[in-house]
UniProtKB/TrEMBL annotation, chain A:
Biological classification of the source: Bacteria, Pseudomonadati, Bacteroidota, Flavobacteriia, Flavobacteriales
Name recorded for this polypeptide: Phosphate-selective porin O and P
Matches recorded under InterPro entries: Porin_dom_sf (IPR023614)
From TrEMBL, chain B:
A GO term, aspect molecular function: metal ion binding
Gene source species: Flavobacterium terrigena
UniProt-recorded name of the protein: CxxC motif-containing protein, DUF1111 family
Pfam families on file: DHOR
Gene3D superfamilies documented for this protein: Cytochrome c-like domain
Keyword Iron tagged: yes
Domain Cytochrome c: residue ranges: 261-393
Entry's transmembrane regions: none
Length: 407, 393
């Protein structure tokens, strides 16, 4: 059904292109490198307006070559069509807007409506949003567009520990307030939730992204209890932005057909994110750290931990920013990403020894941006991951070379 | 502009020359990997088995409802010895008359349960023993050691007077096992796998592990451990067979530093104090349909026989015809790499109670008393040489 809808949508868009003079397409330029608040990421996307039609469309493509090696063994060279995202937005009226994002991952293997909401503004501080929303936990979940980042891979903590681009049916409020150099924003939504798979999955560890595999999640909440996600963020245009977010709710099915079959168990996630640009040297720093607490039955297995934490730190240093190879305002950057995830925080009941299952990674990068909306990036990753017992880590390293661009 | 061009050329040439700076671990530093000499078809099947061995089961794919572990690999990290986290608990049998608690969940405790379910408890009055998972490497060599060779190592009446009187464990086979031309005694056959040598072959061992460790039913063993009822198979027969093939064709551990004079000296002392009386080193396989395993010399440092290990290791539980104080000689090959699969520590002896090789030696009693005493009488330098030899295995 999803595929059919998408095809119809594409045919519709293709027809629009076929029937109009391309010169009528009006690009709405956006500097996607420069951010407002992270929560503005959905609005701050480049798009094309088609003459006087009410719809603006856009999107981005991410593709790369990669050769990684784990413990000296490589699967060889890989070309990867990571994702194609298509945005559509529409100003239904001056204060009612529709935004959407449909994402095709791995050449269409996975197709998802990541975001499709109607926003109704009652007051700048009180906007109602309903539809398929992206839960605003941390910063990356909302601000995940490939062309914004200097790395071909998404942060592990933000996509595998926290579920990357985690969206659900839901509704809630958001708002912003500006005062001089200061900006304040908030978001609060109730939405679909997690399910039992977060502690019962083939990853063999507590894995929140498993809930994304549930095809029923846009129609049915497994526990019957909504997930709350809330975030507050403050930004000073001269200092930077800091955001605090929380996502929590009951994840397991504890009643069925009116019969209590289990005790309700909660998942709680807390995250802090920040970003800043150092004055003069223009170093851009962004990071995110999250803590996850999951109620796991005592009689289950400690393989599925009740605590996780981890995060990432990106440092991007522009080296050259000028006309290069006939591109106006091109830039050359060096960057580095540091990542850490502890998938299972705690001690074994049997030995009182520390539970392993942690990962760290360092990823230096070089990126070239012919325009702010297109990035060519070369990354090297060195990653170490231990198993649950803390045995000598498996070491992964290798290069990625990719391009990502808005269109 | 030229500098930028040169910069990009430099970057591309960097990655075109070398894409990884991490070496493949040496063959003697890891336990996993296939035995030498497999054909391409056999290697492909080895890889399929490896995949099955790593498969993590979930509630949807049959895990539980009660279980000990969710995958083979969670008990045998890197195909090495296991950690106390996945220690098995067996209960309910005190002599050769059999397990009196089979109708109360025996012989194995499933001490974990899916959310919403209750794990098993050891029934009142049942004695029990804990079993730490063993290493998997070289198991095919042990399977294809002939019964005749095992019986030749047995000395039930200690006719050679060395104080060691190993006996095989004779076990009753489940109906899905075809013993072919195996030696038999009263309808029972020689067991060679497991702490008490209660499993006849790797199929027997694997089917039991799927059922008792993970709660996964198969065509071979379709009884659900939680309900005790026959249910549909939760794993395909071909996957079980592929995993068995994988276990058969895992390579034997490769000894390290075998030309080191101290290691050689340690080996001589190991023989001198007669550790080798049970931990036999020079064995040869018989016929095997897998050519790479047929008629091969190997050094597992076990005789696959049961030995009286003294009251200190008598947990009051047994299997087959073994006495509660009898244990199968564990293979010592791979011992030096145990720390790499047990989280940087040693958990030795049948239940992981020994935290060093020296402590494990000190726990040897019964038939091993003479060897333990002889080891204790060695000088510290000689003991160090023995330990170095054992760590080289």
């Amino acid at each position: 059904m999803k595929l059919r809808l998408t095809l119809i949508l594409f045919l519709f868009i293709s027809n629009l292109f076929a029937q109009i003079d391309p010169s009528l397409l009006k690009r709405i330029p956006k500097d996607t490198v420069k951010q407002l608040l992270n929560m503005d990421a959905m609005y701050n996307r480049p798009s094309l307006n088609i003459n006087k039609t009410p719809i603006a469309i856009g999107g981005y493509l991410e593709t790369n070559w990669q050769k990684l090696t784990t413990d000296g063994i490589s699967e060889g060279h890989q070309f990867q069509a990571r994702r194609l995202s298509v945005f559509m937005s529409s100003a239904i009226s001056k204060r009612i807007k529709f935004l959407s994002e449909i994402e095709y991952e791995e050449g269409g293997k996975e197709i998802a409506i990541e975001f499709a909401s109607v926003d109704v503004e009652f007051h700048p501080l009180v906007n109602f949003r309903a539809g398929i929303i992206i839960n605003p936990i941390g910063a990356f979940n909302q601000n995940h567009d490939g062309p914004k980042w200097e790395f071909t891979d998404r942060p592990i903590s933000a996509t595998q520990m926290l579920p990357g681009t985690f969206s659900n049916s839901g509704a809630g409020l958001f708002g912003k307030k500006y005062s001089g150099n200061w900006m304040f924003g908030y978001e609060a939504y109730f939405s679909g939730s997690f399910d039992n798979s977060i502690i019962d999955n083939t990853e063999g560890k507590t894995f929140l992204p498993s809930a994304k595999e549930n095809p029923e999640r846009f129609e049915e909440i497994n526990s019957g209890e909504p997930l709350f996600t809330g975030k507050i963020a403050v930004r000073n245009s001269k200092i930077g932005e800091i955001g605090l977010s929380h996502m929590g709710g009951i994840y397991n099915k504890f009643t069925d057909d009116g019969i209590t079959i289990d005790v309700p168990r909660r998942v709680n996630v807390y995250a802090i994110d920040f970003n800043t640009t150092l004055p003069k040297i223009k170093t851009f720093i962004t990071g995110e750290w999250a803590w996850i607490n999951v109620e796991v039955p005592e009689t289950y297995t400690q393989q599925f931990g009740n605590k996780q934490h981890g995060g990432f730190l990106d440092i991007v240093q522009p080296v050259l920013k000028r006309k290069m190879l006939d591109w106006e305002n091109a830039s050359l950057n060096i960057a580095c990403r540091l990542e850490y995830v502890d998938w299972n925080v705690g001690r074994f009941n049997e030995t009182n020894g520390n539970i392993g299952e942690h990962l760290w990674s360092i990823m230096p990068a070089i990126s070239f941006r012919p325009t702010s909306q297109t990035v060519i990036r070369l990354n090297y990753r060195l990653q170490k991951q231990t198993d649950i017992f803390g045995n000598p880590p498996s070491i992964t390293d290798g290069y990625s070379l990719g391009i990502s661009t808005y269109f | 502009m030229k500098k930028i061009f040169i910069f990009f050329v430099f970057c591309f040439s960097l990655i075109s020359c070398e894409t990884s700076y991490v070496d493949i671990p040496a063959d003697d530093e890891i336990l996993d990997g296939p035995v030498d000499g497999l054909s391409n078809e056999e290697l492909a099947r080895f890889l399929k088995g490896d995949e099955g061995f790593a498969e993590v089961f979930t509630g949807n794919t049959g895990l539980g409802s009660v279980f000990v572990a969710s995958s083979c690999i969670s008990c045998h990290a890197g195909d090495g010895k296991g950690h106390p986290f996945t220690t098995l608990i067996r209960f309910g049998q005190i002599d050769e008359t059999g397990n009196m608690f089979l109708n109360q969940g025996g012989p194995q405790l499933q001490n974990r349960a899916m959310p919403g379910y209750t794990p098993e408890q050891i029934p009142f009055g049942a004695t029990f023993a804990k079993f730490t998972p063993p290493a998997n490497t070289g198991l095919g060599f042990l399977q294809y050691l002939t019964d005749a060779d095992i019986l030749a190592m047995a000395d039930p009446d200690d006719l050679n007077g060395d104080g060691i009187s190993g006996v095989p464990n004779w076990v009753v086979l489940p109906s899905y096992i075809d013993p072919q031309s195996a030696a038999t005694q009263g309808g029972k056959y020689i067991g060679r796998f497991g702490k008490k040598a209660a499993a006849f072959n790797l199929l027997h061992q694997t089917v039991n592990a799927y059922n008792q460790d993970m709660g996964i039913t198969s065509l071979y063993f379709p009884i659900d451990v939680y309900t005790g009822e026959e249910i549909d198979p939760e794993i395909t027969t071909s996957k079980v067979n592929d995993v068995v093939f994988y276990l058969k064709t895992l390579k034997a551990p490769v000894q390290r530093n075998q030309n080191d004079p101290e290691v050689i000296h340690g080996k001589n002392l190991f023989n001198q104090v007669n550790c080798v009386g049970c931990h036999k080193s020079d064995l040869t396989t018989g016929y095997s349909p897998i050519t790479a395993l047929a008629f091969k010399n190997f050094s597992p440092y076990t005789d696959l026989l049961l030995h009286n290990m003294g009251s200190g290791l008598d947990d009051g539980y047994t299997e087959g015809i073994a006495k509660t104080y009898e244990w199968k000689t564990p293979a010592l090959w791979g011992l030096g790499l145990s720390e790499n699969s047990q989280g940087g520590q040693y958990f030795l002896m049948h239940d992981g109670r020994a935290h060093s090789i020296e402590e494990a030696i000190s726990m040897h009693g019964g038939e091993a008393t003479n060897s333990r005493t002889a080891f204790n009488n060695l000088s510290q330098a000689e003991k160090n040489a023995v330990l170095k030899f054992l760590k080289s295995l």
